[in-house]
Design brief:
It is a single chain. The chain is α/β, with parallel strands linked by helices and about 475 residues long. The protein has one domain: TIM Barrel (Alpha-Beta Barrel). Helices cover about 40% and strands about 15% of the residues. The protein has helices at about 20, 55-65, 80, 90-105, 120-130, 135-150, 165-170, 170-175, 180-210, 230-255, 260-265, 280-285, 340-355, 380-400, 445-455; strands at about 1-5, 10-15, 70-75, 110-115, 155-160, 215-220, 225, 290-295, 300, 320-325, 360, 405, 430, 440-445, 460. The strands form 4 sheets. It has an 8-stranded parallel β-barrel, surrounded by 4 helices. A 3-stranded mixed β-sheet has the order 7-9-10, with helices on one face. It has a two-stranded antiparallel ribbon with strand order 1-15. Helix 14 links the parallel strand 11 (about 360) and strand 12 (about 405). The two termini are about 20 Å apart.
């Protein structure tokens, strides 16, 4: 019996990114990308083979079909499609995605494609510094045009940029080698501005090339709580959320900075260089939806003492400090705690501000999964995590918030930028170690069977399967 019936047509799916699963980094004419560098630690897997989706794509789609997925949120590798700085597309790269997308459609699965998911073509970094230079805007738009035209009618939903917050903050992803922390922050905001301009120009081009298609950004939502109800803590939390989340979404949706962020950047001499015509580009397009990536919430308190530069750039501020939330359960890889209600809080705030439909594009539980002697993988912790977040989605929908679908992270185990395969998110296990890729065999986890039943029932059931292998 269904306990939480979701609307008809709800898009149950799962997510991956190109550089974290494909491998084949030097095959099929692919060019180098910033993500090919890895951590430099030979004991941690990099993305050269990753999950070897490049050679297992058909098997992977068969598994998606077996699970009943309605939509697959995937990514294109920019440097596979455009491997150098000439702007000429790589026929072999397009052919790889042709066969993948055609097979997804054959199996009744909608391809939901991310154009830019952290992977910056190294050729463009070498040519002029990547996103720090305005030339990157037109290169991105050209790449987007190639994709829009080539896959017109087959891809009906696009993501412009995945998690711009992370994509512009991590030097290893952008190629920015600046060591001075303040200059690095200034660079981040300049790159972010260029990304937003590129995003709006791409949206405008899609409207011309394929008016039937939909497009939107994917935001790493920052659900920020004040440490206490002390007014100074509450104000710090408000400012943190404006600076870490809404400045990006305001640019994506409204084409402008929020007042506080504009003031903050000018006060700190970090406001980006702009051109007079930019405002027209930023204002003339608007996304169709907002993709939401959510794993955990954070907690902040009023700023006291010196600015701490030894933390992620987007947490660096003279207006707030990150602090612990003692009300949340923490795990080895989820060290900020697990907070299903935070998904509800964050998405509700987004809808109240922008009035656009949303789709969950990432939401997952990291764990060092173990294969039992009989070949099974009992990941009840992941099932519990997903179940509690799905319950919050149903509450939101009942309250009138338009949620289009749910794509947990990740369909199969993916290589992490810093932890390789020690940290796993997948519904499907990839049998490899950090140093030995073996055959990258696929093994269905208990969560695979559980999620299959969720999709089949279009919601959670009272008899919700918890790992029962009901193939």
């Amino acid at each position: 019996m269904t306990k939480t019936q979701f609307p008809k047509g709800f898009l149950w799916g799962a997510s991956t990114s190109a550089f974290q699963i494909e491998g084949g980094f030097d095959e099929g004419g692919k060019g180098p990308a910033t993500t090919d560098i890895g951590t430099g630690n030979p004991d941690i897997a990099d993305n050269k083979i990753a999950s070897d989706h490049y050679h297992h794509w058909k098997e992977d789609v068969d598994l998606m079909a077996e699970m009943g997925m309605k939509i697959y949120r995937m990514g294109f590798s920019w440097s596979r499609i455009m491997p150098d700085a000439t702007g000429r597309p790589n026929k072999e790269g397009l052919k790889f995605y042709d066969q993948l997308i055609d097979y997804l459609l054959e199996k009744g699965i909608e391809p939901f494609v991310t154009l830019y998911h952290f992977e910056c073509p190294q050729a463009l970094v070498d040519a002029y510094g990547g996103w720090l230079d305005r030339r990157m805007i037109e290169d991105y738009v050209h790449y987007a045009e190639i994709c829009f035209e080539h896959f017109k009618g087959r891809v009906k939903r696009w993501v412009t940029v995945n998690e711009q917050l992370i994509a512009t903050a991590a030097g290893m992803l952008t190629g920015d080698k600046e060591l001075d922390p303040r200059k690095r922050l200034k660079n981040m905001y300049q790159m972010s501005y260029h990304v937003s301009l590129a995003e709006h120009k791409a949206i405008s081009r899609l409207r011309e090339i394929d008016p039937e298609a939909k497009i939107g950004p994917v935001c790493a939502i920052q659900v920020v709580y004040p440490k206490t109800c002390k007014p100074e803590h509450v104000l710090a939390a408000e400012k943190a959320q404006e600076l870490m989340e809404f400045y990006l979404l305001d640019l994506s949706v409204r084409g402008e900075y929020p007042p506080y962020v504009k003031s903050y950047l000018k006060k700190n001499k970090m406001f980006p260089k702009t051109k007079p015509d930019d405002e027209v580009e930023l204002k003339k397009s608007k996304p169709d939806f907002i993709g939401v990536n959510y794993y955990f919430s954070i907690c902040v308190e009023e700023k006291k003492g010196a600015v701490n530069y030894q933390q992620p750039p987007f947490w660096i501020s003279d207006d707030f400090d990150i602090c612990e939330n003692d009300y949340l359960k923490k795990t080895e890889w989820m060290d900020k705690g697990i907070d299903p209600v935070g998904l509800h809080i964050g998405m509700q705030k987004i809808y109240h501000r922008y009035r656009l439909p949303m789709i969950v594009t990432e939401n997952g539980m990291a764990y060092s999964d173990k294969v039992e002697k009989d070949g099974t993988i009992h990941d009840e912790y992941r099932i519990d995590y997903l179940k509690k977040h799905i319950e919050q989605l149903k509450i939101m929908i009942d309250e009138g918030i338009p949620v289009l679908g749910y794509c947990p992270w990740s369909f199969i185990d993916v290589v992490s930028s810093h932890q390789g395969f020690q940290k796993r998110y997948g519904l499907v296990y990839v049998d490899r170690t950090e140093t030995d890729p073996k055959q990258c065999a696929r093994i269905k986890k208990d969560s695979f069977y559980w999620y299959k039943e969720v999709i089949r029932n279009n919601g959670l059931t009272k008899e919700s399967i918890r790992g029962k292998q009901n193939g």
